[in-house]
C-alpha cells in the first residue's frame, strides 16, 4: 500500500500519528503515513524519533525510499526496539536539522537563479551545500553572494504548484538539472515557485523548502572550484565569510 507522504504538502509538519504497516528483517519500518522526508534529489532523509504508546522512543538514523518512490522506510539506529505491525506511533522529526536543510535547499534554488547555467550535480547539507554548473566562465564568489543575499532580503514567497507527469514530460525544458530527474511516477510533480506568479523561478523539485526567502538567513559562497573543463562547483555555507553559523 503506498505511503501517504504528508511532507509533500506541508514542509513544516514535524509530527504526526501513523500505523506500522511492515517491519523488515533489517529493522526498517513502513508506516501508513509519514512526515519524514526520504533521501532524494541530493537532500538527506530526516532523522528523529518514533514514540510508542508507553512513551518509549525508537530513534531513527535515516529515512529512505524502498524499491519505488511510494515506499518510505524508516531505519532505526542499531539496537533500537522494533514495533509491531498495526502499532500506532507518534512521529517526531528532528526539526532543527530539517529546518536547516529546508533553508539550504531553498538557497540552492536561489543560486540557480543567480547562476543560470545547467546544473550537473547538487548535494544539500546541514552546514554546507554544493551545486555544480556546466560553465566555463570565471565568476566572483563575493558578487554571487551579494546577489544571493539580495534575493534573500527581498523576501520572495516560496510556494508549490502541482503538475502531472505528462505535463512535465511535455515541457522538459523547465528542468535545470542535466542529470538529476525530478521525482516522477507518482502521477504528479511539484514545482517550487519563487516570487509572485513564479516571477523569480519555477523548478520541478521534490525536496523541502522554506515559505519565504528571508527564512534562508545569512548565506555566502565559500568557494568556487573547477571540476573539469566545463564544470564549476559552488559551495554554499551559512553565515558570512569567516563566520560560518
Automatic annotation (TrEMBL):
Its cofactor is Zn(2+). Residues 1-245 form the Alanyl-transfer RNA synthetases family profile domain. This is Alanine--tRNA ligase. The keyword Metal-binding applies. Transmembrane segments: none annotated. Keywords: Metal-binding, Zinc. Its main location: cytoplasm. It comes from Rhizobium changzhiense. PROSITE patterns: AA_TRNA_LIGASE_II_ALA. It is found in: Cytoplasm. It comes from the Bacteria.
Amino acid at each position: 500500500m503506498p505511503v501517504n507522504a504528508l511532507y509533500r504538502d506541508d514542509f513544516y509538519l514535524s509530527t504526526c500519528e501513523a500505523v506500522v504497516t511492515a517491519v523488515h528483517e533489517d529493522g526498517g519500518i513502513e508506516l501508513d503515513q509519514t512526515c519524514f522526508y526520504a533521501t532524494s534529489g541530493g537532500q538527506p532523509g530526516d532523522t528523529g524519533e518514533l514514540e510508542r504508546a508507553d512513551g518509549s522512543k525508537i530513534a531513527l538514523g535515516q529515512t529512505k525510499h524502498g524499491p519505488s518512490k511510494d515506499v518510505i522506510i524508516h531505519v532505526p539506529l542499531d539496537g533500537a526496539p522494533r514495533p509491531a505491525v498495526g502499532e500506532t506511533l507518534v512521529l517526531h522529526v528532528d526539526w532543527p536539522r530539517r529546518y536547516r536543510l529546508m533553508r539550504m535547499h531553498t538557497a540552492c534554488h536561489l543560486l540557480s537563479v543567480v547562476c543560470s547555467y545547467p546544473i550537473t550535480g547538487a548535494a544539500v547539507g546541514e552546514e554546507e551545500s554544493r551545486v555544480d554548473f556546466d560553465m566555463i566562465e570565471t565568476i566572483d564568489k563575493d558578487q554571487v553572494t551579494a546577489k544571493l543575499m539580495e534575493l534573500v532580503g527581498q523576501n520572495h514567497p516560496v510556494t508549490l504548484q502541482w503538475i502531472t507527469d505528462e505535463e512535465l514530460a511535455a515541457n522538459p525544458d523547465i528542468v535545470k538539472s542535466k542529470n538529476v530527474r525530478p521525482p516522477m511516477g507518482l502521477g504528479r510533480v511539484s514545482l517550487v515557485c519563487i516570487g509572485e506568479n513564479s516571477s523569480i523561478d519555477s523548478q520541478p523539485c521534490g525536496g523541502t523548502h522554506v515559505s519565504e526567502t528571508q527564512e534562508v538567513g545569512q548565506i555566502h559562497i565559500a568557494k568556487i572550484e573547477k571540476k573539469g573543463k566545463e564544470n564549476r562547483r559552488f559551495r554554499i555555507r551559512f553565515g558570512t565569510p569567516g563566520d560560518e553559523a
